[in-house]
Write a structure and sequence with these properties.
Order of helices and strands: H
Number of helices: 1
Keywords: Membrane, Transmembrane, Transmembrane helix
Helix content: over 70%
Distance between the termini: 96 Å
Strand content: under 5%
Length: 66
């Protein structure tokens, strides 16, 4: 009985560790995806700001040249 309990405990611990590792891996993957989304959002925001600045500059130059 003692051997069986020890064996079951070992299997249970390994299974729990595997689940923990899986959770950690899943969390890491989601974190990486979230970082990529944030980077893409920031890049698109920078692009939009750059395009707006370019449009304002073009408008200003057109006003000056008239």
């Amino acid at each position: 009985m003692r051997i069986h309990r020890k064996l079951f405990g070992t299997i249970w611990t390994r299974e729990r560790d595997a689940v923990t590792m899986l959770d950690a891996a899943t969390t890491t993957v989601f974190a990486i995806i979230a970082n990529i989304i944030v980077v893409l959002a920031a890049a698109s925001a920078d692009t939009a700001i750059a395009l707006n600045i370019e449009a304002i500059m073009t408008y200003t130059v057109n006003l000056m040249v008239g």
